[in-house]
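Collaborator request, handled under Task 6.
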Amino acid sequence: MTTNRPHSKRVSEILADIARSGDGDGLELHEILAMMGERAYGVMMLVLSLPNAIGLGAIPGLSTIFGVPQMVLALQMIVGRKQLWLPRTLLDRSIPRREFVRVVDKAMPHLEKVERYLRPRWEYLAEGVAEPLLGVAFLILAIVVSLPIAFGNQPPAVAMALLALGMIERDGVFVVAGLIGGVIALAIASTVVVASLAAAFLLVRYLFGG
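Structure tokens returned to the collaborator:
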């Protein structure tokens, strides 16, 4: 049986509030966390997934910048930590507001379309004892995101965004969709790696006449 949360803000509203919060040119992570409440894990995972999900991960090094904090969060989910923790050096780090707003503006039309289908269902897949298992999925996908794999960052980031949305809205259907997307993303990444190794082997063989 599902339970509705009538006074809970939608994901798009939370992100819009974060983008409008504060007065300076930067957004510090501790300020963002303070606005997330009980959905901190899901919202933070979503925030960190969006840049790679919308294609910014093609910029060298950017995917790792967002992937590493996701690994830290995933490990906390695995061990069952209720209160999200980040090192003080990360909490005090500032995200340029202009860049955050740009990412949110680009993602917002997609989020608003997806939100039409989000609702509490199959909640046992999105909370409670399922969280450590979701942490394992996040950890594997975050590792893949952090690796320098050509065209390999976006699919796992999209999968993590679906998982995060499922967690935030307690929608097990989106969790399943994220897990399926994760399997596909791992298959794509594996194919790219194998193809790259094969190409490198053939190149070396050609150059050195092996």
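The cover message to the collaborator said: "The chain has a mean pLDDT of 80. DSSP finds nine helices and two strands in the chain. Please let us know whether this matches your experimental observations."
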